[in-house]
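hiii so um. not sure if this is the right channel but i have a protein structure encoded as C-alpha cells and i wanna go backwards to a sequence. like what aa goes where. can anyone help
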C-alpha cells in the first residue's frame, strides 16, 4: 500500500518507510523492464506514458534520457538534476480525457514514440503508479505482426471504425484491435444496437461505397483491409428480407473482381499491358483530361478490370493515390516507382513467368503481383484516385514495421520495395554457392567482373537489370597497413549533407601544468559537427602541441557534470547556456588524471544562532599524477596547478613546493586512446571503491585535502604518507581556508562564460545550399570507421578502426540518390532543410566512375522523379514530382491530388530522394550545361 502523492512507501508489515532513493527506483524499473523484455508474448500489456513526465523521472533518477530527451518542439531538454517529479500526468497526450470514460480514452493522433510518449511494461507501470499515482492509465496490448518476419508491436492506436446504421444513417465510433476477428466485430455491433445475431450484416463501406460484405468469421480485421477511421455499413434483416444490394452473386456475396495474376494474352504491345482485345494503355501520349473511370469503381482498388480498353490518345499515369491515414510516405515512393520507365514497361507486359514463389528470401510473389496490379491501375486511362488498400495490406503483412497508421520514412519503404520486388522476381531458382576469394594483387577490373558475375549468378531480376550498380570499397588497417578491397552491389546511394552552417562557441581553457591562467577562447565550428571539430578548432587557437591533448567537460554547480569522452559526440548536444571547459594535458599513457573540486565554509545565522555549512564553489581543476603516489605527491600536484592564481604579494620562493616531478615537468598526463583523443571512464563509473588507500601515520599536509567519490558524498583525509594506488582517475576535495584565500586569487575560477550569451538578437542567416556533387564527394571521401563499426584485420587478428574509401565502379540505368536529411544521435533527432542544388538535365558522373572500360555506357543522367518531405520530424508530409518522359512534362503527385508543375519549380529544399535515368548518347538536352551530349 502507499500514501497517495507522497512517494513514501509502506512496508508489508504496515510500518511507514522512507522514500526510495532515486538509485533504488532506477534499479527496480531497470530490472522489471529487462524481465518483461525477456518474456515477450502476444497479449502482454504495455502502458503509454507521457514523455514529458517520464523524462523528468529519468533525470530525477540520474539516468541519461537518451532518445527521450526531446520535447514536442524538438528542443533538447536540460539534462541538469531536478527534484522528484509530481504525479504521473498523461493529459498532454490524451485527446478526450475530460469527456470520456476510462475505457474510451483516445490519444492525440500522430504522437511519436520517444518524443511524445514512451511505452513501459505493465509491471513498471504498476510500480510507477504505486510511487507517484496520477494517470490516466493507458494500457495497450502487445501484438504479433508479419507473415514472414514476425515482430512484436504495441498497438498504441487501435483500429477506429465508424459504424453507419442504414436505417437512420446514425454514426457510432467503435475501436478494435487489428487482431480482433470479424466475429468479434459482429458481436460488438449486435450488442451496441440490441439486435439478434444472424439478423445483421456489415459491409466494408470505404469511400461510402459498398466494397465487400464482411462475413461473420474468424478472419482478422487486419486481413480484411479495413483502414483507420473508415466507415462500415450495418444492414438489418426485416421479415426475412435484406435491404437491396448490388454486385452480388446468388449466395449473397459480392462478385470477385480481382484477377489473381496478370491477364495473359497472345497479343502484346511494347510499353503497354497485354490485353485480351489487343489494345493497350500508352504511357507516352498526350495529356488526357477526361475522367474515364467512375468514382465508384475507381475507388475500389480490388475492382480494377484489366479488360478495360483505351485508345492511344488516352492519358495514363496521372491518377493519384488516396491517403489511407498517414500513408503519404508510401504514396510518394510508389509514384516515383510507377513512373520509372523500365518498370512501367516491364509491369505493363506479361511478367508472370518471372514470378518466383519458391524463393525463401522473397514474399511468395505476392508483393510483385500487388505492385504490378497497382501500377496497371495507375496507368489505366483516367485520373480518379486509387485507394491502395490491398497493396498496403501486403506491405503490412511482409514488413510489419510499416503497419499501423503512423508516419514512416519514404526511403525506408523504397528500400523494402526494391529488395522485395527483386526477390519475388528473381529468375534464379537455385542459387549457386561461391566462396569469397582474396584479390591476391589481381587487377581491379578482373576482381570486379568476377564479383559481378557471382552476384548475377545468384541475383537476376528486372530490379538488378536496371537499379543495381557496383562500388569499390577499400579498407586500410591503421596498424599494419593491410589493404582489403571488395566490390559490392548497391541499389541506391545514401548521401550525407555537408553542413555549411557554423556556430560560435566560447570555451575556457585551463592548463594542467599550472603554467598560465585560464583563458576563454571563442571559436567557429560547424553547427552539426562533433566534439572532434571543437577540439581541433581550440587546438589551433591555443597552439596545441602534438604531444598534448584537450579534455572537454561541462561544468555545472561547481562540479564536472560530464566529460565529452567520444570525439564523435555531436555538438548540438552542447547548449548555448552551458559552461564548457577544456583542460590542456599531455599525451602520455602512464599518467593518472587528478580532478580537484573546491569547498569553502559558508557562514549564516539561522534563528539568530551562528552556524556554517561547507559548500562547493569555484571551477574544478584537472591535472595528473605519475604512477603510485603519496599524499605529498597529490599536494605537490595541487600546488602546481594552483600556482598561476597566487597573489603577487604572497608569491615567494618559500611558498612554492620544493619538489618537482622526476621528469622535470608537470605537464605529461593522461591516457591516449586509439582514436587519438583523451581517454577516461564515464563519469560515475569510479568511486571510492576503485581507489586503494593505505592510511599511515604521517604528517598533515599544508592543504586540507580529502579523497572523495564521484558524487562528493564520502571523504577521507589525505595525509603526507597516504598511498594512492589506482589506475582510475583520482578525485580530491580541497577545503579553502583563510590561508588559501590570502595566498590565491580565486576570482579567476569564478563566473565561467557560457558557450554563447543568450538574449542577443540574432541575425537571420541565409539558407545554406550545397550541390549534389559536394554530397557525393562527402559520401566517397576517405574516413575512419566509427568505434561501433570496427574492422577485423586478418593480418593483425584484431578489430581495428580502419579507414574506408568508396569509389563508384559501375552505374545502373536507374540511379537513386537518398539525401540523408534525418540524423539520429544519442542526444538529438534532427532534420536538415539544406537546399541541395541538383541537376535536372545532364548529370555527368564520368569523373566518379573508376572502371576503365566503363562498359561502353553513358555516365550522364536525367532526372525523372523526386520524393519530397516537407516539415519536421513526425509532423511532416510527403509528396512526389514525376515526369511523364514521353510527354516531357512534370506533375506534382500529392496523395489524391495531381497537378502540372513547371520544371523550374521542382528544385526545393524538400527534395529527399532523387531518381535519375541513364541518358543515351545523342542530342543534348536543353536547359543545364553538360559535359556530354545526351538525351533519353
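sure thing!! here u go:
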Amino acid at each position: 500500500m502507499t500514501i497517495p502523492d507522497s512517494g513514501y512507501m509502506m512496508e508489508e508489515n504496515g510500518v511507514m518507510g522512507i522514500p526510495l532513493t532515486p538509485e533504488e527506483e532506477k534499479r527496480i524499473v531497470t530490472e522489471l523492464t529487462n524481465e518483461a523484455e525477456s518474456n515477450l508474448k502476444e497479449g502482454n500489456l504495455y502502458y503509454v506514458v507521457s514523455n514529458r513526465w517520464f523524462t523528468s523521472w529519468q533525470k530525477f533518477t540520474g539516468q541519461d534520457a537518451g532518445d527521450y530527451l526531446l520535447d514536442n518542439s524538438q528542443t533538447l531538454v536540460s539534462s541538469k538534476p531536478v527534484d522528484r517529479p509530481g504525479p504521473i500526468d498523461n493529459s498532454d497526450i490524451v485527446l478526450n480525457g475530460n469527456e470520456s470514460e476510462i475505457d474510451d480514452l483516445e490519444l492525440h493522433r500522430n504522437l511519436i514514440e520517444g518524443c511524445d510518449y514512451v511505452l513501459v511494461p505493465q509491471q513498471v507501470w504498476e510500480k510507477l503508479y504505486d510511487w507517484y499515482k496520477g494517470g490516466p492509465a493507458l494500457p495497450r496490448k502487445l501484438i504479433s505482426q508479419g507473415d514472414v518476419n514476425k515482430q512484436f508491436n504495441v498497438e498504441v492506436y487501435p483500429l477506429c471504425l465508424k459504424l453507419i446504421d442504414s436505417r437512420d444513417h446514425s454514426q457510432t465510433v467503435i475501436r478494435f484491435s487489428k487482431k480482433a476477428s470479424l466475429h468479434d466485430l459482429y458481436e460488438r455491433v449486435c450488442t451496441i444496437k440490441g439486435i439478434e445475431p444472424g439478423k445483421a450484416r456489415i459491409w466494408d463501406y470505404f469511400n461510402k461505397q459498398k466494397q465487400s460484405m464482411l462475413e461473420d468469421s474468424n478472419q482478422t480485421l487486419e486481413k480484411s483491409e479495413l483502414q483507420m477511421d473508415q466507415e462500415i455499413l450495418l444492414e438489418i434483416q426485416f421479415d426475412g428480407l435484406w435491404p437491396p444490394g448490388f454486385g452480388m452473386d446468388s449466395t449473397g456475396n459480392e462478385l470477385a473482381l480481382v484477377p489473381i495474376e496478370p491477364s495473359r494474352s497472345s497479343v502484346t504491345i511494347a510499353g503497354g499491358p497485354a490485353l485480351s482485345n489487343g489494345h493497350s494503355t500508352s504511357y507516352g501520349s498526350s495529356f488526357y483530361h477526361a475522367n474515364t473511370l467512375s468514382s465508384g469503381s475507381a475507388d475500389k482498388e480490388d475492382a480494377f478490370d484489366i479488360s478495360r480498353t483505351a485508345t492511344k490518345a488516352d492519358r495514363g499515369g496521372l491518377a493519384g493515390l488516396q491517403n489511407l491515414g498517414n500513408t503519404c510516405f508510401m504514396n510518394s515512393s510508389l509514384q516515383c516507382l510507377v513512373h520509372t520507365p523500365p518498370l512501367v514497361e516491364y509491369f505493363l507486359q506479361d511478367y508472370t513467368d518471372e514470378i518466383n514463389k519458391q524463393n525463401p528470401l522473397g514474399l511468395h510473389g505476392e508483393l510483385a503481383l500487388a505492385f504490378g496490379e497497382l501500377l496497371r491501375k495507375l496507368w489505366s486511362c483516367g485520373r480518379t484516385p486509387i485507394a491502395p488498400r490491398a497493396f498496403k495490406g501486403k506491405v503490412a503483412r511482409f514488413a510489419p514495421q510499416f503497419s499501423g497508421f503512423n508516419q514512416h520514412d519514404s526511403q525506408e519503404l523504397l528500400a523494402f520495395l526494391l529488395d522485395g520486388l527483386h526477390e519475388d522476381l528473381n529468375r534464379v531458382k537455385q542459387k549457386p554457392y561461391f566462396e569469397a576469394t582474396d584479390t591476391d594483387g589481381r587487377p581491379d577490373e578482373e576482381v570486379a567482373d568476377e564479383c559481378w558475375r557471382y552476384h548475377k549468378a545468384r541475383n537476376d531480376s528486372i530490379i538488378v537489370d536496371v537499379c543495381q550498380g557496383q562500388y569499390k570499397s577499400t579498407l586500410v588497417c591503421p596498424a599494419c597497413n593491410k589493404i582489403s578491397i571488395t566490390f559490392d552491389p548497391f541499389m541506391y546511394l545514401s548521401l550525407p549533407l555537408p553542413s555549411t552552417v557554423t556556430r560560435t562557441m566560447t570555451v575556457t581553457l585551463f592548463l594542467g601544468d599550472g603554467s598560465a591562467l585560464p583563458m576563454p577562447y571563442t571559436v567557429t565550428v560547424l553547427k552539426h559537427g562533433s566534439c572532434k571539430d571543437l577540439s581541433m578548432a581550440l587546438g589551433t587557437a591555443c597552439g596545441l602541441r602534438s604531444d598534448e591533448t584537450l579534455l572537454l567537460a561541462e561544468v555545472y554547480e561547481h562540479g564536472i557534470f560530464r566529460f565529452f569522452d567520444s570525439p564523435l559526440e555531436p555538438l548540438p548536444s552542447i547548449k548555448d547556456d552551458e559552461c564548457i571547459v577544456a583542460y590542456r594535458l599531455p599525451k602520455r599513457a602512464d599518467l593518472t588524471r587528478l580532478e580537484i573540486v573546491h569547498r569553502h565554509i559558508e557562514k549564516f545565522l539561522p534563528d539568530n544562532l551562528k552556524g556554517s555549512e561547507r559548500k562547493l564553489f569555484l571551477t574544478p581543476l584537472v591535472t595528473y599524477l605519475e604512477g603510485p603516489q603519496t599524499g605529498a605527491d597529490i599536494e605537490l600536484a595541487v600546488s602546481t596547478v594552483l600556482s598561476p592564481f597566487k597573489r603577487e604579494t604572497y608569491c615567494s620562493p618559500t611558498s612554492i613546493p620544493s619538489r618537482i616531478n622526476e621528469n622535470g615537468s608537470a605537464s605529461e598526463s593522461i591516457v591516449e586512446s586509439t582514436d587519438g583523443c583523451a581517454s577516461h571512464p564515464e563519469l560515475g563509473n569510479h568511486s571510492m571503491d576503485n581507489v586503494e588507500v593505505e592510511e599511515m601515520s604521517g604528517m598533515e599536509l599544508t592543504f586540507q585535502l580529502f579523497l572523495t567519490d564521484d558524487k562528493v558524498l564520502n571523504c577521507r583525509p589525505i595525509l603526507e604518507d597516504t598511498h594512492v594506488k589506482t589506475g582510475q582517475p583520482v578525485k580530491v576535495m580541497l577545503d579553502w581556508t583563510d590561508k588559501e584565500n590570502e595566498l590565491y586569487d580565486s576570482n579567476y575560477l569564478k563566473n565561467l562564460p557560457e558557450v554563447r550569451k543568450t538574449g542577443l538578437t540574432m541575425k537571420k542567416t541565409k539558407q545554406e545550399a550545397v550541390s549534389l556533387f559536394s554530397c557525393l564527394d562527402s559520401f566517397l571521401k576517405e574516413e575512419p570507421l566509427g568505434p561501433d563499426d570496427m574492422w577485423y584485420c586478418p593480418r593483425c587478428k584484431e578489430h581495428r578502426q580502419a579507414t574506408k574509401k568508396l569509389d563508384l565502379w559501375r552505374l545502373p540505368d536507374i540511379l537513386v540518390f537518398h539525401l540523408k536529411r534525418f540524423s539520429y544521435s544519442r542526444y538529438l533527432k534532427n532534420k536538415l532543410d539544406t537546399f541541395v542544388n541538383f541537376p535536372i538535365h545532364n548529370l555527368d558522373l564520368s569523373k566518379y566512375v573508376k572502371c576503365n572500360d566503363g562498359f561502353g555506357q553513358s555516365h550522364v543522367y536525367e532526372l525523372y522523379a523526386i520524393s519530397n518531405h516537407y516539415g519536421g520530424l513526425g509532423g511532416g508530409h510527403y509528396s512526389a514530382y514525376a515526369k511523364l518522359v514521353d510527354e516531357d512534362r512534370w506533375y506534382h503527385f500529392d496523395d489524391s491530388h495531381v497537378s502540372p508543375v513547371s520544371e523550374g519549380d521542382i528544385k526545393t529544399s524538400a527534395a529527399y530522394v532523387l531518381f535519375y535515368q541513364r541518358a543515351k548518347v545523342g542530342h543534348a538536352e536543353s536547359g543545364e550545361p553538360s559535359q556530354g551530349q545526351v538525351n533519353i
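oh and The longest strand covers residues 611-626.
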